[in-house]
Amino acid sequence: MVIQKSEDLYLNRAKFVMKYLGVWYLFLIFQMIYIIQVWGDLEAVSQASYLLFTQACLCFKVTVLQMNMDLLKDLLRRMNEKVFLPQSAKHESILKLQAKRIKRLLLAFMISSQTTCGLWALKPLFDDAGSRNFPFDMWMPVQPEFSPQYELGYAFQLVTICMSAYMYFGVDSVTLSMVIFACAQVDIIKDKILSIQHIQKENKDQHEIKEILSENYNKLIECVKHHQAVVSFTQLVEDAYHTFLLFQLVGSVGLICMSALRILVVDWRSMQFFSILTYVSVMISQLFVCCWCGHELTATSEDLHTVLTTCFWYEQDVRFMRTLYFALMSMRRPMVLRAGHYISLSRQTFVSILRMSYSYFAVLNQTK
Rounded to two decimals, what is the model's pTM? Predict the structure, then answer.
């Protein structure tokens, strides 16, 4: 059986994006210059602020990724350790299934983000037909009144925002794919536990029974070591990326509110309205994927305690039961992924953030 590396199975797309695309800090710098120029104009500042924060969040994520490069290399090395390698075709299918799930979600996020970029690019052609405006309100070193400065500026904004969306996909893929990889490993542990053999003493001699007891005991020890490795792996993932996960959660509230306020003041028949609407949906979907991955890790690991009690433990010897007791104690708490080592990523957190965003939006709308 040819075993594919877990690193390639889960992170092949992210490695391609991070290898061939760079992060564009010029977009962020030009946005900051523009906001300084229009400071005092609430409408202009609010229109540019959500794009500014989007680029700032991306730059922060990439910076955290670069600063924690040693931790990333350690995580990649652990993904290919012997304890995480599949031991059967079923284990390999579990890994492939979980990899396919996270890839589909991240692919949907990437497609929606590129659709938003396309709508932004079409905005000057439809909403400002006849005038030469750039897709985004930002300071530019070129003038739209002259050619080819207009074409170069237009291409610069379009290319940088599209590459930024790809970089978002790449950075998020690294973190979230590792979390789902941990979920797959927990499912493999469950399969190992359920493979503990039933002992039919009436059909076997003492030598065969001892061999089965010894094999079952070794399987339990292997499951305990496997579980400890998964716990250590997920803790390392949290230590490496908890800062930008917290930045993403907190910033999502402001981004959703600012975007919703922009929707109220623009014409619903304009291209800008649909671009902002898709932008809000992209931000919500990104937030959902983060919380979904954390929820999957918790939901998958909290069943591990129950699976241990469904094996044929009552037919085993004393050393098996003693080890089982300690295994139950260590596996009784589900694994939790936390942003900032404080906020747990779960569906409840996702709903709470949406409610908080709506509350802030309602207050801002009334004061406006």
Answer: 0.88
Output the six-digit token pair for 50.
């959500």
Measured CA to CA, the distance from residue 306 to residue 289 in angstroms comes to 27
pLDDT digits (tens, 9 = 90+) for 133-156: 888 888 888 888 888 888 888 888
Return d(Cα 233, Cα 209) in angstroms, integer.
36
| Residue 53 near residue 247 (C-beta atoms within 8 A) | no
111 contact partners, CB below 8 Å, separation of at least 6: none
**Other beta carbons within 10 Å of 328:** 14
Nearest residue to 341 (alpha-carbon basis) of 209, 234, 221, 220: 234
Residues 6+ apart with CB under 8 A from 84: 6, 78, 185, 226, 229
Q: Omega before 124 cis (within 30°)? A: no
Among positive and negative, which fits the CA dihedral 248, 252, 255, 259?
A: positive
Across 43-57, 199-213, 248-262, 294-308, which has the greatest mean pLDDT?
294-308
CA atoms in the 13 A half-sphere facing the CB of 315: 16
Task: Tell me what the mean pLDDT of segment 287-308 comes to.
Answer: 91
* pLDDT of 178 above 90: yes
What pLDDT sits at residue 1? 46
Contacts of 338 (CB under 8 A, 6+ apart): 238, 242, 344, 345
The beta strands (E) that lie in the chain are given as 338-339, 343-344
